[in-house]
Amino acid sequence: MLKKTKIKKPLELFSKDNVIKQFGLTQKQYDKIDKYIQEINIYNAHTNIVGKSTLIDPWKSHILDSVQIGSFIHNKNSTILDMGTGAGIPGLILAINNFKNVSLVDSNLKKIKFIKHVCLKLNIETKIYHQRIESLIDLNTKFDYLVSRALANLNKLLYYSQKLLKSDTVLIFLKGRHVNDEIKEARKHWSFHHQVHQSVSDERGSVIIIRSLNSIDG
Predict the structure, then answer these.
(1) pLDDT band for position 12 (cuts 50, 70, 90)
(2) pLDDT band at 13, cuts 50/70/90?
(3) Burial of residue 187, with CB atoms counted within 10 A of its CB: 0-12 exposed, 13-18 middle, 19 or more buried
(4) Residue 88 has pLDDT above 90, yes or no
(5) What is the CATH number of the domain that holds 146?
(6) Alpha carbons 182 and 176: distance in angstroms, whole number
(7) Total structural domains in the chain?
């Protein structure tokens, strides 16, 4: 049975100050996040890496989405792959929040160039892959956690994930209001255990946690 758990009412967390307080961000961390947002604005002026409308209130549209993922990862030394990272969301925010082993992958060169630029400028330590997610298989790299935001439907995400798993890898995906339909469709091709939690960034959104993924297509 689908389990849906509310973390908090989303509207209570929309301000920057509430995000900082709720997730215990230090001054050093939120100062670096503000600098990261500044770099996105500067870069976005000449190269579009995020939607302009999302920069009206980035702490609501990007940062809160990202820091809530960290609530489900209790070991800061866990290996984490941000699949289809885009401008580095959520991976760079997790790295700023002291997760030590964050990797980011994206096939879009202009976004990877931005990530490399901002990591160098803000001293953010990550591993960065400019390639398709599927090609990571050739590196025989496995991760403790796979995370993603706004990359693809659940069935496609599970396809991307299948060759990157350890026996106990946990998948954490931010999904929208159609998460139940996506789960139903994915069940046609995959077996897995899952939980669905209310997103704190959008009352229509969810965080889906998946374990024990296996293909049933043979």
Answers:
(1) low
(2) low
(3) middle
(4) yes
(5) 3.40.50.150
(6) 10
(7) 1
